[in-house]
Amino acid sequence: MTDNMSLAQGRNYLAIPGPSVIPDAVLQAMHRPSPNIYAGELVEMMPDLTADLRRVARTRHEVAIYIANGHGAWEAALSNVLVPGETVLAPASGRFTHGWAEMAERLGVKVELIDFGPSDPWDMDRIAQALRADADHRIKAVLAVHVDTSSSIRNDIPALRALLDDLNHPALLMADCIASLGCDRFEMDDWGVDVMVTACQKGLMTPAGMSFVFFNDRAKAKRAAMPRVSAYWDWLPRSEPDWFYQYFGGTAPTHHLYGLRAALDLIHAEGIEHVWTRHARLARAVWAACEKWAEGRALHLNVGDRAHRSHAVTALRLTGGRGTPLRSYTERHLGLTLGIGLGMADEESCFRLGHMGHLNGHMVMGLLGGIETAMAALEIPRGSGALEAAAAVLAG
Amino acid sequence: MTDNMSLAQGRNYLAIPGPSVIPDAVLQAMHRPSPNIYAGELVEMMPDLTADLRRVARTRHEVAIYIANGHGAWEAALSNVLVPGETVLAPASGRFTHGWAEMAERLGVKVELIDFGPSDPWDMDRIAQALRADADHRIKAVLAVHVDTSSSIRNDIPALRALLDDLNHPALLMADCIASLGCDRFEMDDWGVDVMVTACQKGLMTPAGMSFVFFNDRAKAKRAAMPRVSAYWDWLPRSEPDWFYQYFGGTAPTHHLYGLRAALDLIHAEGIEHVWTRHARLARAVWAACEKWAEGRALHLNVGDRAHRSHAVTALRLTGGRGTPLRSYTERHLGLTLGIGLGMADEESCFRLGHMGHLNGHMVMGLLGGIETAMAALEIPRGSGALEAAAAVLAG
Amino acid sequence: MTDNMSLAQGRNYLAIPGPSVIPDAVLQAMHRPSPNIYAGELVEMMPDLTADLRRVARTRHEVAIYIANGHGAWEAALSNVLVPGETVLAPASGRFTHGWAEMAERLGVKVELIDFGPSDPWDMDRIAQALRADADHRIKAVLAVHVDTSSSIRNDIPALRALLDDLNHPALLMADCIASLGCDRFEMDDWGVDVMVTACQKGLMTPAGMSFVFFNDRAKAKRAAMPRVSAYWDWLPRSEPDWFYQYFGGTAPTHHLYGLRAALDLIHAEGIEHVWTRHARLARAVWAACEKWAEGRALHLNVGDRAHRSHAVTALRLTGGRGTPLRSYTERHLGLTLGIGLGMADEESCFRLGHMGHLNGHMVMGLLGGIETAMAALEIPRGSGALEAAAAVLAG
Amino acid sequence: MTDNMSLAQGRNYLAIPGPSVIPDAVLQAMHRPSPNIYAGELVEMMPDLTADLRRVARTRHEVAIYIANGHGAWEAALSNVLVPGETVLAPASGRFTHGWAEMAERLGVKVELIDFGPSDPWDMDRIAQALRADADHRIKAVLAVHVDTSSSIRNDIPALRALLDDLNHPALLMADCIASLGCDRFEMDDWGVDVMVTACQKGLMTPAGMSFVFFNDRAKAKRAAMPRVSAYWDWLPRSEPDWFYQYFGGTAPTHHLYGLRAALDLIHAEGIEHVWTRHARLARAVWAACEKWAEGRALHLNVGDRAHRSHAVTALRLTGGRGTPLRSYTERHLGLTLGIGLGMADEESCFRLGHMGHLNGHMVMGLLGGIETAMAALEIPRGSGALEAAAAVLAG
């Protein structure tokens, strides 16, 4: 396994935009025998667990937990509020809105997609135009990806809410926070989000395999009016269970629940506001280095405007198809795994940095230092002083 | 937590009919950082993993892996082969056929249910009658629960196949092996099963959170003719993926895959035939003790005929509502957790023993010895020599 | 690894007289990165840890922690209070007193050994005789093994103290509680023990590798008068450190300390009095079964008098060299490992049961049930009703 | 625990000069039940384990394993070859030779110490002078610390051997490789080392608690001539055991053995030559950064001559007592723990970096990036380009 010419023998650092680095406390909590699933500790911990999930999402409303990945939560959310034949609006900045929209189509839902390409955030005027054109309110929901993991664009959810309100458009505002929750500021209730979808393996720092749908009273009302919702996706018993097994529509994901419990303890011990501040600072350090490197005209940040950059992931391009060699170098020679490019025109040139979740100052410097090393080894032109610029940001 | 009058301080033994006891090798394999989900070890291990799953199911056909519990796999299986408005036949011995049938109804499928009650296996004549009455083949599938976890009845799948063949009935034979796979003999191809559903937390000895649908060419043909299948449940990309993420319809259940890998290694190191033999022997030891206790006329085995008893779970009744006190005693005083009664008329009287998966001779004797102790403490009439009878079976 | 004819695939149960079964909480606590050894959590936890160790030993005096096994603690204890050429009295019931005495000799100490053989406790008259004969108090210490792990004899420490007091003999009373601490009642201060030696892998439920010497003011005074004590064994800085590293004479046993912390939490959550009561009850259950089996005249308990039987270990003999086949059977066929015979005339006939530490009712029944099974398989004559007798004891 | 103004929430990085970072494979291997200590897997793995230890030490001679820390191994080594009243020569570069010499004195051995201070390697002329003055060979051994963990000086063992040979001095050459084994090149047999002492928690990447003494035929001969060696320290039965327990002079350190097994597998999979090369390259990267920073005249490397710098640890000084504030900053703000200064005149100014064992490129860049950040935050003058200089070394 070890490349004998490499300096990789040591801790592997998975710096992809999810799964993120799992805290030791989470893995420890999951290394245990199966608990009883009818009574006892596991059953008793659920009220606090769901309360603490809601605290992260900044909502006093409901949450349904799914044994599923983020795609499952997408389908769950759609299944509870959309009847085949209904329409959703899907403003896409990057790849994942397309994916969610395709899922809607597979459920028989019509999709009106506005594609802003892989590098631009929503253009609110074009969205306004689409909503205004929908005078008879065929559009029942807007699929709003908060942070697109492929492009690292962060879209402006409050602005979208304001637009819907201004236009008196009743469409549900459905947010995908899979890449942002626990990283970028997100305020479900204050921002007027009706349905929010997320998963456990990014900002929530738990091994992949669990996802969540949060929903408010407007969404509940739509659910109540549905002719049929599949038993597995139905969020009703999951959010208001009479029996423990209804939380999960069957057998509980026992070990994931213990892992999530430990992760939520870490988040709330730090404080969610501080979690956001930390991610913001670490992201600015990443940007500072990347912007310096970019002076060499080989490296480019996918998102030009800092205001639209995610605090959890950064998409980059190295001209001449040098993204893949760079990733290969850091993995084989330094023990550092970077994310592949996704959904871009030239995927060999692209790569992504995950900087989400269980992340601190030395990790970010190790990530950036690894890239500097690889660029040096591959003789990629770059501005100097990148690492010192990042350190200066961290030093505040 | 510890009851100060108790003898419970020690290893907890969870002897419920799932989740089963997880081997240390499985937990060790899961205690690791998240792997890359785009390349490397995890990606490379999939071909062998799916091959080894098929070996356990005794099929050369397809398998789709779901991040979901058994209920999710139920819905997945139904979603791939049944159009709303079609009909299934559901012969029910115990509770779980009802659950699967309700799921079908929630998908708009019509259900023809034959209820054999909580203590009797299928009556093949009544099933034959129902199939014969279906001259125009409205019945598209038969929902056949191999082992019902609530009643501990094991139904005769080969006999059902023979019946369908005799009657030339084209309905798909869909088997639920959630409680039987890796415990009771099951031969998917030889028995002519078209679709089989199972989950990881019983005979497969992996923490709950992953499930599986196996299907053959007949089932694939039905899938191909479906007007629409939801993206998450669609088994097609999961069984024939072009890309790794299609195995899981999105992010992989990273840690569960490592756990399952370790569990399959244990199964195949032992040999699946030997796994079945072991379960058979251990089950007979349990029955030997229970039949002795039953001489005291307080304890009753739910299933009278040994030929219809599961090798993985045993449902019992203690007259006078003494099932719950017995369970309470073993848990609080001995560190032994028994399964609650499910789906029975008098649930307080009922309880169940799980004897599945990672299970050996001393564990079964500890389980039975715990029950003997509790019956003594609660002064429940019982035949003598139960434990020695069990030991005699184990001694062969 | 798995014997294909066996029923062993399942949890291995190590029922030898140490190492004992390690609680999950202990293993979890040890699965962590190395901590800083100069400041922080590890340093700060020491005062409570040593206080909680003293609570288990029932002493308000000193404790020194050694990275060493029990033999190391033996040597440590001897090294702090005995000058080459001095004499100790060693009343031996079983093998381990011999071992300790040999260690003393290797340090240049003279040993006066009284051998009571492998099956008898101390004869206080013979000890009295030896002490009376020592009019000029050449005997500086008595090496008193509380429970001998090979013979399972428990000796009467308070009686020995009374004897020394009666005779006004100033010899230090040095107790070996390696096999008894946290199992059998032991009261260091009330019983007038001057030095006590123990280790972590039995009643303290922590992986082998750490041991302890407790000592009171009389022992300290003797240490103060020593011409020389080796730096590693010197208990002075270990018990009264100015710096953290002095606790361990160098680098701390980081992970063992976390494990021990978790184990002490379990003990004190249960309460040491209850721990003793639990061991007593479980031991009586073991005896009840063994005494029944003994009616068949093949099995013999090594210690006839219940008052002199350890609550942590039971030494047995199966005539005709059948101890080894029995152990072999339980290990290969049932997943149950019994202890070998040690220090007996016919070691093939002998075997031992560990019933110490993290142990509860179903475990004891599994242990005994495994032996019943093996005796049945090997057609060893035995009284009937052994398991029911044990269950009756547990049922109270 | 979390400082709310910090960026520390993430993986802690313990970059002290031991304990080093433990590989996941080692922790996984240790998270298991206690094995049997009389037969089976643990017993069977010993021959390969000791062979693989010898491969790391580059010797065909003997090894004794001790449950003890490095100080214990020091005492063990001394105890096997030195009689009270004999003399050793102790050339000291840094603190640890003093410690070993004190241990010798506590055993009654006379010490002739040559102190080269905290920043200079051995002066071979002064050592030669001392040996020449010893015409009657009172000096029985030379205590030679290969790498001093406090000063980060690496001494020239082959030169010392050559000197002894040139002078025909029969003193045993006893090397302390606690901080160097598995990091800096060490060739026991080729270099003519007679006794070598090391421990498991640095280059051997195993939790602290086990240590080792290697010895050759000359040392064995001296041992054979000893009037008395304590039973615990006697290396004879440990190196040539008739029974498994003799390897450890009693109960085996069960879990440490599994951990060490996993660590040795990592070392030999990489290849010991490559391990040394990796450490050399990573050390040069550290030096490159430190030398750049040193241009600011606040930071100083303790060892001026690269030829005498350890590849495993680097001792540094920040004028004005700023070592402690720097360490405090990296720990509280970045999750990075640096080593304290040891044995220096102004300990508040000093600090040390561990770069040993399970260590790769991104970790070193994270370590250096953390220091750059802290120096920026604390406004410590420093040369620029330090991190890029380190990256250039790594890039080769």
Keywords summarizing the entry:
homotetramer; 396 residues; Aspartate Aminotransferase, domain 2; Aspartate Aminotransferase, domain 1; 2 domains; seven-stranded mixed β-sheet; 40% helix; globular
Task: Please give a structural write-up.
The structure is a homotetramer. Chain A is of the alpha/beta class. The first copy, chain A, has 2 domains: about 30-270, Aspartate Aminotransferase, domain 2, CATH 3.40.640; about 270-395, Alpha-Beta Complex (Aspartate Aminotransferase, domain 1), CATH 3.90.1150. Helices cover about 40% and strands about 15% of the residues of chain A. Chain A has 14 helices and 12 strands. In chain A, the strands form 2 sheets. Chain A has a 7-stranded mixed beta sheet, sandwiched between helices. A 5-stranded mixed beta sheet of chain A has the order 1-11-12-10-9, covered by helices on one side. In chain A, helix 7 links the parallel strand 5 and strand 6 (about 170-175). In chain A, helix 1 runs antiparallel to helix 10 (about 255-270) and helix 12 (about 325-335) crosses helix 13 (about 360-375). The interface between C and D is large, with 58 and 57 residues.
What would you call the shape of chain A? globular
As for the number of domains of chain A, it is: 2
**Strand tally of chain A:** 12
Percent of residues of chain A in beta strands?
Answer: 15-25%
Under the CATH scheme, the architecture of the largest domain in chain A is 3-Layer(aba) Sandwich
The number of helical segments of chain A is 14
CATH top level of the largest domain in chain A is Alpha Beta
| Biggest sheet character of chain A | 7 strands, mixed
- Estimate the helix proportion of chain A, in percent: 25-40%
Order of helices and strands of chain A: EHHHEHEHEHEHEEEHHHHEEHEEHH
Radius of gyration of chain A: 21 Å
Find the CATH topology of the largest domain in chain A.
Answer: Aspartate Aminotransferase, domain 2
GO biological process, one term (chains A, B, C, D): glycine biosynthetic process, by transamination of glyoxylate
Family (chains A, B, C, D): Belongs to the class-V pyridoxal-phosphate-dependent aminotransferase family.
InterPro entries (chains A, B, C, D): Aminotrans_V_dom, PyrdxlP-dep_Trfase, PyrdxlP-dep_Trfase_major, PyrdxlP-dep_Trfase_small, SP_NH2Trfase/AEP_transaminase
Organism (chains A, B, C, D): Ruegeria arenilitoris
